[in-house]
Amino acid sequence: MPTALSATATVLHKSVEVRDTTASTKYPVANPHQGKYRAEVSRYLSNSTYTGNSEKAWYLLADPADLPVIEVAFLNGQESPTIETAEADFNVLGVVMRGYHDVGVALQDPKGGCKNKGEA
After folding, report:
1. Residues 2, 58: contact at Cβ < 8 Å?
2. Greatest Cα pair distance in the chain
3. Is the pTM of this model over 0.70?
4. Residue among 69, 8, 81, 63 nearest 41 (CA)
5. How far is 62 from 25, CA to CA, in rounded Å?
6. Which of 22, 41, 77, 81: CA 20 to 30 A from 117?
7. Using an 8 Å Cβ cutoff, are 58 and 38 in contact?
8. Which pLDDT band holds residue 104 (cuts at 50, 70, 90)?
9. What confidence category does residue 25 fall into, taking pLDDT thresholds of 50, 70 and 90?
10. What is d(CA 104, CA 35) in angstroms, rounded to the nearest whole number?
């Protein structure tokens, strides 16, 4: 979720009770969703330099062990980057370094996630 919704999400997910101040609404005050979800905040979701950014939209994703939305794969199972070093040319003081990371990402099951616009 965008950073603007972080405090609201924390209150909703951790509160023991959820109360409505209007007299006409009658429902239990116990929060049935307390502790079920974990709020993850990303500043990229509301960053205006990205297409489709929003200060109000948020996503709900299933547990990846149950229904993964995306799959990340690593070449030969190597999950960390490869860093290589070599001596620099004789006329240059120092060491030469390079790094690379062989990784791929693919859509797995879109039913594992949904996006809410955050407004009507």
Report:
1. yes
2. 83
3. no
4. 8
5. 31
6. 22
7. no
8. very high
9. low
10. 32
